[in-house]
Amino acid sequence: MFRKFYPAEMAESSYSIDYESLYAQGYRGIIYDIDNTLVEHGADANEEVIELFRRLCGMGFRICLLSNNKAPRVRRFYHGVKIKGVKLHYIFDAHKPAKKNYRKAMLLMRTTKKTTLFVGDQLFTDVYGANRVGIRSFLVKPINKKEEIQIVFKRRLERIVLHFYKKERIGRLKQTNLVLIGFMGCGKSSVGQYLAQKCGFTFVDTDALIEERAGCKIREIFQEKGEEYFRDMETDVLSELVRTAKRQVIATGGGMPVREKNQKLLRKLGFVVYLSVTPETVLERLQGDTTRPLLQKASKEDELRRLLTERKFVYQMTAHKVVAVDGKTIPEIAAEIHDSI
Ligand code: S3P
After folding, report:
1. Could you tell me if 212 and 113 lie in one domain?
2. Nearest CA to 276 among 311, 300, 249, 302?
């Protein structure tokens, strides 16, 4: 009954969304509600918005403001945020959830519903409208918790819808799997084990499954049969997990998402989380490690940086969610993943 109001995603704020990954996934245009989504109700553009828009435009995103507010308010905000050389669009009196102006926004940005995102703080106008047009919607928490009386009433209704939404999502997730991807040493296994316990899931490590099957260590597979052989084993294990795994937390080898076929399989397997890590942390953690054949070269640091740069985009493109792990404890990372489900 309430499904038409469900957002595709929920985020803490417009500023905490992982736009890099969304760009990697092919999105090119973002429609923003203004009031309580980007700034407090009625407020002018501030440094935070300007910085965000500058970053997004630098990445290649096109942006359109879509507000139910009147022309003077929207124009004032638009002029406050307009950045030299950046083409920013706006539509006032949008009558959300009516579909017409979502479509106009896409026309202005020259994007399609497949390449457009919507970010807003209200379910019955913002998200509902985006859903009607088929645009992926992000519901963010309102910036100012103190709102006008008619909105307070709407928020009560929203809470009811969100209650069912969360229940349904958790229910669905209980039938699926959590898949951890990321570079060697990012903590997939340790976070995975902790997370599995927290969710009541079983823990699986694709490297361990491969070693079990081969009856020897990964280092030996690389030495005796070569990397391609190992990659084929990875694809086999992954295909099998897609067929059989339920309620599992699956830690994957760092190179698993490199093959295009595996990217599709990983997303089919479950909710994919990319644990992103800096090369400095990896270097520190893998000092003296002899189990990873790809890092046994004399120029270990150069190789690590090269591989990480090469793979970053692939990880982002494959993941549903990115969690930066540097400086965080295992329980903190696990909680971040758990809360985003
Ligand atoms: C590899 C990562 C390793 C292991 C193999 C290859 C890679 O797993 O699968 O050595 O290509 O990044 P971890 O990420 O668990 O270290």
Report:
1. no
2. 311
Q: Prior bond to 7 cis, omega within 30?
A: no
Q: What angle, rounded to 10 degrees, do the helices at 71-81 and 47-59 form? A: 70
Alpha carbon of 63 to ligand 1 centroid (Å): 38
Distance 41 CA to ligand 1 centre (A): 48
- Tens-digit pLDDT profile for residues 80-113: 998 777 779 999 999 999 999 999 999 999 999 9
pLDDT digits (tens, 9 = 90+) for 138-161: 999 999 877 777 788 889 999 999
d(CA 73, CA 274): 40
- CATH of residue 276: 3.40.50.300
Residue 292 CB less than 6 A away from ligand 1: yes
Q: 19 lies in which domain range?
A: 3-172
What's the predicted TM-score (pTM) here? 0.74
